């Protein structure tokens, strides 16, 4: 036995152990490599399966241009087999289109050099399949290859095309909506989720007086002032938070005028809020006017005598006026809960304000049909001696209007009217005058006297003849047939023009009637005929007598004038012989004889003046006057100088007071001087000795005035009333001689011939004052 040293044995053992450990590790590594290989094979199979079933097919393009790709990709490209080079993907009848192949080569080269990824849509020839190529360079820099993923985008392209069509349609709709919003006459806007303005239309810009929509949005100009509680932003916030549209009415200033706007805020799915504003100013005014009209109408209905009740579409009592409540004894407390129509009828029945009916439920049901009646219904209710006219008018909105009119008094008036008609007929028949009533162009009513005056037959009158027929019928009964038209004219004036006119007609038999046409309140005309035959006879007699008196006055005037002329000759002789005696032609006279001759001369002068006055009075009537400028002051002074000897003889103070304003007038110098002389002569004659007579002259721009006054005994009222009457006696002068008073009538006649005015004022013991005013 070989002995091995211990150290060698240890070394051998160590080697064996090392070999065993190495073998074990190799076994373990082999098993692990086998497991990893199996796992890699399975993973490659899965990947291959995934690649085979993937909607995208990969192609590897090597740096030298060679390609590697699965068979399925060749089918997509319409190739029998895959070419080896990228440039061979485009064939004559199959493969990619040459343009797509060239574009793909360019993108691959760019990816190889710059590592730029790309996406390119391509299509195989003869195939409807749309492919999308996505390419990128491999991350392994050593290989510098490019991976091309071919995706089947056929369905995607169809969806894209559909989406493009839909997008075009939506874009057109959006454009139309935008144009509509822009053209809208009302302000419209859009707010974002933060309620800031993002868009406004032109109407909004005009309302806020902005430059353009961008400037308004940038400045955030609000249409309505105030953004606090209840403002436009508050409504928009509520709409955004609740998802419910909000409406509010707010005032705004637009175009310098205060307008009422109704704002609408509508939440959108995007979180924003769209809004628009409607101008309701006119609507508010109309609503206010309608409300005021309703109030005024109800106030007016309260003042009506008729009862009025209005029922709403739900048949509840909406309104009733005071006469209705009073008529049916209804209190306001009972009306507080707006009773229904049936309850109102029941209440009326309880207060005995409805007519007695046998079947009340059926009667009430018929009245309930008033709400749906096509037209108004009218009835007469007789309740406890009261007659009510009931009018039921269905309202368009479904309600009912009831009007209750008390006709009791009207029925009484109709009864009284019938009685009055009978009284009137009896009265007309008993009148002594002929009476006819015309209406609508016909004779409507007449009395017995009317028929007797015209001698009409009853059949003719019962036919109510027209005015023209009546005129023709009366022609033959008149003295002048043409006067028949006057009767027709009178009737027409009274009936149509409402004028009262009258005339006189003469009958052929000598009768005379005064006919008068009077308009009546009812539009008719009343014709009355009064027999004035006796009156006309008396008038004719008076006219004949007046003509005889006028002829007698002319004879008297002619006689007085002739006698005055005849008296001039003997007076001239008497005066001449008296002057010769007084002058001593027949010898020297004694003192007594001289006094006698002076008295004769004085009497002759007075008698001559009287004859001259009589001639003036009779000849001046109607005699023309001279129209020349007359110095009234000079004429008055001349007249005063002529009367001065008479005043001096009676020791009367004759005073002339000239204010210097009398001036001149247009007239007859002789007559005006005679006016002053007659007034002064009358004053001197009626004034006692040592009295005073004043002649005053003044005037203005319109008239000249002459005033003669004295402090004589004055005149009584009767004497003043007869002062200007011809040949009247006005008392006795202090000398005991009667004054015939021709001077005053002559003065009045001359003054009035000049268009002037004369006035005499006198009282007993106060003297006399005469005023004459002459126009310029």
Automatic annotation (TrEMBL):
<dbReference type="InterPro" id="IPR003661">
    <property type="entry name" value="HisK_dim/P_dom"/>
</dbReference>
<dbReference type="Pfam" id="PF00512">
    <property type="entry name" value="HisKA"/>
</dbReference>
<dbReference type="InterPro" id="IPR050736">
    <property type="entry name" value="Sensor_HK_Regulatory"/>
</dbReference>
<keyword id="KW-0812">Transmembrane</keyword>
<protein>
    <recommendedName>
        <fullName>histidine kinase</fullName>
        <ecNumber>2.7.13.3</ecNumber>
    </recommendedName>
</protein>
<feature type="transmembrane region" description="Helical">
    <location>
        <begin position="7"/>
        <end position="28"/>
    </location>
</feature>
<keyword id="KW-0808">Transferase</keyword>
<dbReference type="Pfam" id="PF12860">
    <property type="entry name" value="PAS_7"/>
</dbReference>
<dbReference type="InterPro" id="IPR003594">
    <property type="entry name" value="HATPase_dom"/>
</dbReference>
<keyword id="KW-0472">Membrane</keyword>
<keyword id="KW-0418">Kinase</keyword>
<keyword id="KW-0175">Coiled coil</keyword>
<dbReference type="Pfam" id="PF02518">
    <property type="entry name" value="HATPase_c"/>
</dbReference>
<feature type="coiled-coil region">
    <location>
        <begin position="153"/>
        <end position="180"/>
    </location>
</feature>
<dbReference type="InterPro" id="IPR036890">
    <property type="entry name" value="HATPase_C_sf"/>
</dbReference>
<feature type="domain" description="Histidine kinase">
    <location>
        <begin position="562"/>
        <end position="776"/>
    </location>
</feature>
<dbReference type="InterPro" id="IPR036097">
    <property type="entry name" value="HisK_dim/P_sf"/>
</dbReference>
<keyword id="KW-1133">Transmembrane helix</keyword>
<dbReference type="InterPro" id="IPR005467">
    <property type="entry name" value="His_kinase_dom"/>
</dbReference>
<dbReference type="InterPro" id="IPR004358">
    <property type="entry name" value="Sig_transdc_His_kin-like_C"/>
</dbReference>
<keyword id="KW-0902">Two-component regulatory system</keyword>
<keyword id="KW-0597">Phosphoprotein</keyword>
């Amino acid at each position: 036995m070989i002995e091995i040293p211990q150290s060698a044995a240890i070394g051998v053992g160590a080697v064996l152990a090392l070999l065993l450990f190495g073998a074990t590790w190799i076994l373990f590594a082999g098993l692990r490599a086998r497991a990893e290989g199996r796992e890699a094979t399975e993973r490659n199979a899965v990947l291959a399966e995934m690649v085979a079933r993937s909607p995208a097919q990969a192609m590897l393009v090597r740096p030298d241009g060679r390609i590697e790709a699965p068979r399925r990709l060749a089918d997509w490209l319409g190739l029998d087999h895959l070419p080896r080079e990228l440039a061979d993907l485009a064939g004559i009848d199959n493969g990619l289109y040459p343009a797509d192949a060239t574009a793909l080569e360019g993108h691959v080269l760019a990816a190889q050099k710059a590592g730029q990824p790309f996406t390119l849509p391509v299509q195989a020839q003869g195939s409807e399949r749309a492919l999308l190529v996505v390419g990128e360079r491999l991350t392994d820099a050593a290989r510098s290859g490019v991976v091309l993923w071919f995706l089947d985008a056929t369905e995607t392209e169809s969806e894209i095309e559909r989406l493009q069509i839909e997008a075009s349609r939506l874009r057109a709709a959006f454009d139309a909506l935008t144009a509509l919003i822009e053209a809208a006459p009302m302000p419209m806007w859009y707010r974002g989720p933060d309620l800031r303005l993002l868009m406004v239309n032109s109407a909004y810009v005009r309302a806020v007086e902005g430059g353009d929509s961008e400037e308004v949005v940038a400045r955030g100009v609000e249409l309505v002032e105030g953004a606090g509680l209840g403002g436009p932003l508050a409504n928009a916030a509520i709409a955004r938070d609740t998802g419910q549209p909000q409406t509010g009415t707010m005032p705004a200033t637009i175009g310098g005028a205060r307008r009422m706007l109704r704002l609408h805020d509508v939440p959108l799915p995007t979180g924003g809020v769209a809004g628009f504003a409607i101008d309701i100013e006119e609507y508010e005014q109309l609503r206010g006017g309608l409300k005021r009209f309703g109030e005024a109408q109800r106030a007016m209905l309260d003042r009506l005598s008729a009862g009025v009740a209005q029922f709403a579409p739900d048949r509840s009592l909406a309104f009733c006026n005071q006469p209705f409540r009073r008529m049916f004894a209804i209190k306001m407390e009972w009306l507080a809960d707006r009773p229904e129509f049936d309850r109102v009828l029941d209440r009326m029945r309880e207060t005995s304000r409805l007519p007695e009916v046998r079947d009340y439920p059926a009667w009430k049901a018929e009245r309930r049909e008033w709400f749906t009646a096509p037209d108004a219904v009218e009835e007469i209710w007789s309740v406890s001696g009261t007659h009510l006219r009931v009018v039921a008018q269905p309202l368009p909105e479904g309600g009912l209007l009831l009007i209750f009119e008390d006709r009791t008094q009207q029925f009484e008036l109709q009864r009284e009217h019938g009685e009055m008609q009978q009284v009137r007929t009896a009265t007309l028949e008993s009148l002594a005058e002929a009476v006819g009533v015309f209406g609508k162009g016909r004779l409507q009513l007449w009395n017995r006297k009317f028929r007797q005056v015209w001698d009409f037959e009853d059949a003719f009158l019962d036919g109510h003849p027209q005015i023209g027929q009546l005129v023709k019928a009366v022609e033959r009964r008149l003295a002048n047939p043409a006067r028949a038209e006057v009767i027709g004219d009178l009737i027409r004036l009274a009936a149509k023009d409402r004028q009262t006119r009258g005339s006189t007609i003469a009958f052929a038999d000598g009768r005379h009637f005064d006919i008068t046409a009077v308009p009546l309140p009812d539009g008719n005309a009343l014709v009355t005929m009064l027999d004035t035959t006796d009156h006309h006879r008396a008038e004719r007699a008076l006219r004949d007598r007046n003509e005889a008196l006028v002829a007698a006055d002319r004879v008297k005037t002619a006689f007085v004038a002739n006698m005055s002329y005849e008296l001039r000759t003997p007076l001239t002789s008497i005066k001449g012989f008296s002057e010769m005696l007084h002058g001593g032609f027949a010898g020297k006279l004694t003192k007594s004889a001289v006094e006698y001759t002076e008295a004769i001369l004085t009497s002759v002068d007075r008698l001559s003046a009287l004859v001259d006055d009589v001639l003036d009075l009779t000849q001046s009537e109607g005699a023309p006057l001279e129209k020349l400028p007359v110095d009234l002051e000079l004429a008055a002074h001349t007249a005063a100088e002529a009367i001065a000897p008479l005043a001096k003889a009676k020791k009367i103070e004759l005073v002339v007071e000239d204010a210097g304003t009398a001036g001149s007038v247009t007239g007859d110098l002789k007559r005006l001087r005679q006016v002053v002389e007659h007034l002064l002569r009358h004053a001197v004659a009626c004034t006692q000795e040592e009295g005073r007579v004043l002649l005053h002259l003044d005037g203005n721009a319109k008239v000249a005035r002459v005033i003669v006054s004295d402090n004589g005994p004055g005149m009584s009222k009767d004497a003043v009333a007869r002062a200007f009457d011809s040949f009247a006696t006005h008392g006795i002068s202090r000398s005991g001689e009667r004054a015939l008073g021709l001077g005053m009538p002559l003065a009045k006649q001359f003054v009035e011939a000049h268009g002037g005015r004369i006035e005499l004022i006198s009282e007993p013991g106060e003297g006399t004052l005469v005023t004459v005013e002459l126009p310029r």
